[in-house]
Amino acid sequence: MRLSDGDRSAFPILLDELWPVILAFAQRRLRHPEDAEDVAQEVFLRICSRISNFDRERDGLSWAFGIASYEILTQRRRQSRRREAFASGHLLQYADPAGSQEEAVIEQELAAALTMAMGALSDTDRVILGLAAAPSLDLPGPTLRKRRQRALGRLRGVWRKLYGKP
């Protein structure tokens, strides 16, 4: 309450009391401790930026956990997008060109596996995913995004059939 009144001396108390709780909450729900720390920091940034809108009739701990839950979901979405971007090859441009022989063999095996999985897709799916050359698609943005989402889902399904869950 003091913090929502503008009393900045209450922040260290809030930090000392709430940081370990929010951090433990995030660690239980995320794979990496670094991600949990990032989420906890983001939670405190959100708390500080929204404290003036805090409804004093509500429980402060529940409010903080609500913010933490939202930030955990956001972090999971970011991780999912990173995995998809790496799988599609967008990040390969940043790879070390002088990698080890083991890395080269692994990369070749993965490329062969991906080629085999893509071979099970229809021509339309390969065009939608940008894996095959075709004239430009004149589709509205939402339609193209939905078709990409469905094509990626089919690619994931083929991958799981061939190689198990990633």
Any overview of this molecule?
The chain is mainly α. It folds into 2 domains: 8-85, RNA polymerase sigma factor, region 2, helix turn helix motif (Rna Polymerase Sigma Factor, Chain: A, Orthogonal Bundle); 98-163. It has helices at residues 11-29, 33-50, 60-87, 101-119, 123-128, 141-163. It is elongated. The mean pLDDT is 80.
Low-confidence stretches: none
CATH topology of the largest domain: Rna Polymerase Sigma Factor, Chain: A
N-to-C series of helices and strands: HHHHHH
Number of helices: 6
What would the average pLDDT be, to the nearest integer? 80
Give the CATH superfamily of the largest domain: RNA polymerase sigma factor, region 2, helix turn helix motif
Number of domains: 2
The shape, in one word, is elongated
Strand content: under 5%
Q: Percent helix among the residues?
A: 55-70%
* Structural class assignment: mainly alpha
The Rg value, from CA coordinates, equals 23 Å
- The name of the CATH architecture of the largest domain is Orthogonal Bundle
Main beta sheet, described?
A: none
Span between termini: 47 Å
Look at the structure and give the CATH class of the largest domain: Mainly Alpha
